[in-house]
Amino acid sequence: MTDIPQGAINRSAKLAGLPISAAGRVGLGLGQRLMGRTKDEVSAEMSRRTAEQVFEVLGTLKGGAMKFGQALSVFEAAMPDDAVAPYREALTKLQNAAPPMDPAVVRRLMSEQLGTAWPTYFREFDDRAAAAASIGQVHKAIWRDGREVAVKLQYPGAAQALTADLNQLSRLGRLMQPLMPGLQYKPLLAELRERVLDEIDYAAEAANQRVFAAAYADDPEIAIGKVVASAPQLIITEWVDGVGMAKIIAGGTREQRDTCGRIMAEFHFSAPERARALHTDPHPGNFLLRSDGRLGIVDFGSVSKMPDGPLPIVGRLARLSIAGDADAVVAGLRAEGFIPPTLDPDPDVLMNYLIPYLEPLRHEVFHFTREWMQQLWATMSDFSSPELKLARRLNLPPNYLMIQRVTLGSIGVLSQLDAKAPFRSIVERWQPGFAGD
Q: Which residues pair with 125 in a beta bridge?
C-alpha cells in the first residue's frame, strides 16, 4: 500500500530535516575545500546533493510538498546555469512522477467512490497508474459507451497530508533562496496554500473542467476533455493524449516548441474572457501536444474564478509603460493600491523597474530563452539597485498576486520551451486596455 505519509511527526520530520541536511553540507563543503577541492567543485556537489534530497522528499510526500515543487518548477529557467543542472533533472521528474498506489488500493477506492458495481461502468479498466498527479493518480479506461477516459483517483489521506505540508513548507524557501533570490516565497506560499486546498475538492475540480471544456468546445487549437462522471475523490474525463510538454522542453523540434508556446500563451490570456476564470497551475505536466497540433490541457484543480473577466487596468498600465508615460503609470498604480499613500516614487526609477518585465510586448515576435529569463531574474534579484529598493516598498494587492504569479510562471515555461511567440498580438486580442482605451 502506498498511501501518502500522513503522520504529522513523520511528514514534519522529513521536511524539517531538509534545512538541517543543507547546513550539514555547508560544513562538509568547508571541510572538503580545506582538503584541496576547489570552490566550484564543492558548490556543484552541494547543489547536486541538495537537489536530490529536496525533490526526493517532495515527490515521496506528494500532497502540498509536491505542489510546492511543481510551482517552483515553472521558474526553473531563471536558475543560474552553474547551479541548475541537478535541479533541472529533479524538477522534471517531479512534474509527473510519484510512487503508484497498489492495485488493491485502487480497487478499494473505486468501490468507495462509485459503489461495488463500478466495473460494470467500464468496458476496460487498467488498475496500473498511467500518470501521477500531485494529490492523485490517473488510470486509463474505456467507458461503457466506448469512449477512452482518464480516471483520476485521489490518494488516501491527501487532505491530512496537504494540511501538514502547508504548515511546514516555509522551511523550504530558505533552501531555494540562494538559487532564486528574486522570488518572494512568503506571498507565493500564502497564495499557493489557498489554491492547493481547493484541489482536495474533486467535485469543484470537475465543475471547473466542465466550464473550461464548454468554453473551448470545438476550439481548433485547444483540447479539453469533457467530464464523464465525478465523485468527491474521483473524476472521470475524456482521455486527452499527446507528447508531454516536459519532453518537448527536453528535446522537441523548433515547430513543437513554438506551437506549444504560442497556444499556451493564447490559453493563458484568453481564459479570463472565454471561461471567466484563470488556470493557475501552468507547470508543464498539465500540457500535451496532440498529433493534430492542438494543445491538450489535463488538470483543472487549481483555477481562480474571474466573473468580471480580465482586468482592463493591467493592459492599460502595460501600454502606458511601454509608451513611457511615467506620470500616468504612477497615477494608475497609486489608484490601484500598488503605491502606498506615504510613498512618492521617482517615476524614472519606477519605469526602469517595470520595463524589463514588458520586453516581450515590445516585439511582434519574441524569443523566450533561458538566457533572457536569467537576465530578468538577475535584475529582480539585485536588491542594492534603486529599482529593487523601490519595488520592496510597493504593495501587491491580493487580487493581483495570483495574476502575477501565474503570468510569471507561464513566461517561465515559455522560456524553458525556448519558444518564439507573437506575444504582443495575443495580448492585444485578449487583454482589455492594451490596444487602447
A: 141
